[in-house]
Predict the 3D structure of the following.
Amino acid sequence: MPQFKAPTRDIKFAINEVLNSEALYQTLPGCEEATQDIINAIIDEGAKFAEEVVAPLYQSGDEEGCTWSEDGVKTPAGFADAYRQYVENGWPALSADPTYGGQGLPNMLGIVMNELAGTANWAWLMYPGLSHGAIHTVEEHGDEQQKQHYLTKMISGEWTGTMCLTESHCGSDLGLLRTKAEPQADGSYAITGTKIFISAGEHDMAENIVHIVLARLPDAPEGTKGISLFIVPKFDVTADGGIGERNAVHCASIEEKMGIHGNATCVLNFDGARGYLIGPPNKGLNAMFTFMNTARIGTAIQGLAHTELSFQGALSYAKERLAMRSLTGPKNPDGPADPIIVHPDVRRMLLTQKAIAEGARVFLYYLAQLGDVVQCGDAESAKKADDLMALLTPIAKAFTTELGYECSNLGVQVYGGHGFIREWGMEQIVRDCRISMLYEGTTGIQALDLLGRKVLGSGGKLLLEFTGLIDELCEQHSGPEMAEFIEPLKAAKDEWLEVSMKLGEAAMENPDNAGAAAVDYMMYSGYVTFAYFWARMAAVAQARIAQGGEDMSFYEAKIITARFYFDKLLPRTRTLKETMLSGADTLMEMPEALFIV
């Protein structure tokens, strides 16, 4: 199986050198403690925990899986102890509100920890990972008593949290949900219904689980305008904030899944369970988006995590595996064959993984920075950051996970037949990664959100906010030394605006044209977005090389990888342009009756 090594050098490059985090956080009230020394110390400690505690459980957790009984769910051996160490080290409190026991550091550092632990063992990370969204939801929408009772315990890590949206008859169409909330005389609500696909919905790692549940009040309007949000704890909470009686919420079963076997994906029955309204009545979906947007960025991290882990396994194997001779002559003349890393096609696969992992890392940490500006910045900077996040979040979630799956499969391909064999661990990465394109909104739903709501719905305003940043970068680096990156970036940006306008016109003629183009448009947008961040990385690397000093090979590798991205991956936009502008006719002309087997 791949031996995970935390990519601390590259994480520090992204955070400190490309994104200049210390300078940003000195301007944000409440974030001043996030100096480069503190950031680096957290990265190093997080890496140590991920490598030594979480990574060793990766394959064993997959093989053992979770066990259901009427008494609850038992997680794989070692999972609960790893969580205990996670809590003792203070990781759940890293970026939470100090008023309720948090350390008050920027959310970006929580994302760093998610990458480290998630690359080491995604199934394990999902247990504490879902809590972050629950914490943000209660922080933003809970009343003071809810914060004292629930927030403090989730921040400490004593309790974990979930999000309960999906029902068997409705997935992403939440307007169809049927779970009911009946008002009670004491001000609570009786929650009745069944939720499915609830990650970490039942386990033995924490003494209580706080479910954030969508349900309907008796007089609620139809559709999404009639959804309210509730806190439903596994164990009710006493007046002093302690553990009370067992609530009427139970795990009916756990799903038998393709991957992430170490995480319990639960069917939860709410049989008149005691719940507490959070936020205004019938505004639950608005409040839940706090949770969902947090979860979407977290899911984007999964695309990065599996790309990184697959790359590490593939790279190690490619350096050691001997097969055939280089087309340009033996590179290992004393051996029976050359290591496969000398072959161009293996290089293609490895460089694709490397370019996607490192591009995603800077992109997602940039998004995390924007989230901190939204939370802590002045009104003007917060509004601009929020607009950028609105545009970039669906790209991050969908594009990064789609490429994460591609790169996971490339890892199997590098191994050849051995990649298909379980003991090597590469096929597990593919199985674990596949869910990332489904939960928190499928690729198609994210694409419709991007094109329909964020680009066309804003009249192009949100897109122009980001392309304005691309213009600034191109102007800043207009000299010949960056021309190989800046010229294609500028051309791609101009074409992005052009095709967006054409799609808007096509959608006005026939709305199906937008639906037909959406996924291709999202992928196109992702490649241009990554090009922007790779140009930024190349500019930093060039500057460091010009200064001279240590670690020059690291910066040289950045330049070479940037060149690969622009030469081999960005040109994928050419095909995407053709397909997205081809319209909906060939998709919609066939009558349903002709879809036969």
Q: What stands out?
A: DSSP finds 19 helices and eleven strands in the chain. The first strand starts at residue 67 and ends at 69. Residues 294 and 314 are 31 Å apart (CA to CA).
